Amino acid sequence: METRTTRSHASPSSSLRRARFRRIITISAFSIFFTSAGFLLATAPAIASIVTLMSCPTDAESIALYHTADEAAAGINEYINSHPLSRSLHANPAWTESRPHLRYPESQRKHSLTAATLIGPGRIPVPPLVFLEEGKSLVSISYLSTDLCGHVGIIHGGLLATLLDEGLARCGFSALPNKIGVTANLNIHYRDPAPAGSYVVLKAEMTKVEGRKVWVKGRIELLGDTAEPGKLLVEAEGLFIEPRYAKSLPKLFANQTKRTVS
Predict the structure, then answer these.
(1) What span, in angstroms and rounded, lies between the C-alpha atoms of 155 and 28?
(2) Residue by residue, what is the 3-state secondary structure of the chain?
(3) Statement: the pTM of the whole predicted model exceeds 0.85
(4) How confident is the model over 119-148, as a mean pLDDT?
(5) 149 beta partners
(6) pLDDT confidence of residue 262
(7) Shortest CA distance to 242 belongs to which of 218, 216, 210?
(8) At CA 176, angle to CA 47 and CA 206, rounded to 5?
(9) Cα separations (Å) of 223 from 86, 114, 135, 194, 220?
(10) Gap between the Cα atoms of 238 and 138, Å rounded
(11) What's the rounded Cα separation, in Å, for the pair 170 and 133?
């Protein structure tokens, strides 16, 4: 008696479906892998920048970071530090001292107009020395050298506008919820030519604060040999607004470990 063996064969359509399913799973896995890898590669510079910003030096550390580049810069730095105005602010516990431009991470400082491009021999040889009365006022002392001119021997008005924009903003930031903002409006009134090769002092004070908005007024004067006001060069009023996304930004301009100067 003949015994027959019956084999069960899968239908061609069933095998095709299984093969197609395996291909879909494989392609999906590769897609997820390469998409994740691409995202990590794309965001790595931004993540590194944020980490660097969040570990930037404190106000006190920024003072210690400055080392004079040459004998001329050393003389300028000594004059600024020993000036009667500087000494009076040193003695006042309400004011904190810093060199804000040195708080920028080196990798980003080199791209900054005021922290790198304008700093150096013939321009602003020594980073400005800044005193801040948080939530109220700011005083910044600088030396403007001979390569910043518009007319011969006269500091370019655009440079003075830049100093005012930054100085008034830094003064106002201390009153904003997240300590950072952008310039909404800046009105400038030029009063007298600023001679090249001069020490100047920028003075700013807040006039009004409303939530994410702060109004600041300020002036730049020639720095004389005493703490008394010098010749008025330029005045300005500005409005600065904190962006709605400011809470997610690193607090580069916030005072860290507030230091009382003495």
Answers:
(1) 63
(2) CCCCCCCCCCCHHHHHHHHHHHHHHHHHHHHHHHHHHHHHHHHHHHHHHHHHHHCCCCHHHHHHHCCCCCHHHHHHHHHHHHCHHHHHHHCCCCCEEECHHHHCCHHHHCCCHHHHHCECCCCECCCCEEEEECCCEEEEEEEECCCCECCCCEECHHHHHHHHHHHHHHHHHCCCCCCCCEEEEEEEEECCCCECCEEEEEEEEEEEEECCEEEEEEEEEECCCCCCCCCEEEEEEEEEECCCCHHHCCCCCCCCCCCCCC
(3) no
(4) 96
(5) 155
(6) 39
(7) 210
(8) 135
(9) 11, 20, 24, 11, 9
(10) 14
(11) 11
- Across the beta sheet with 137-144, the strand order is 96-98, 129-133, 137-144, 198-210, 213-222, 232-241, 182-190
**What digits encode the pLDDT tens for the residues 209-262?**
999 999 999 999 999 999 899 999 999 999 999 998 877 765 555 554 444 343
Question: Do residues 171 and 218 touch, judged by C-beta distance below 8 A?
Answer: yes
Tokens of 29: 């896995």
Per-residue model confidence (pLDDT) at position 50:
43
Q: Nearest to residue 118, comparing CAs of 182, 162, 181, 88?
A: 162
CB 180 within 8 A of CB 202: no
Assess contact for 219 and 187: CB atoms under 8 A.
no
Q: Which of 124, 247, 81 is nearest to 176 (CA)?
A: 247
pLDDT per position as a tens digit, 163-215? 999 999 999 999 999 888 999 999 999 999 999 999 999 999 999 999 999 99
Instruction: Give the model's confidence band at 17: pLDDT under 50 very low, under 70 low, under 90 confident, else very high.
Output: low
Residue 7 has pLDDT above 60, yes or no: no
Look at the block and give the residue holding tokens 């409006």: 185
CB neighbours of 224 closer than 8 A, spacing ≥ 6?
230
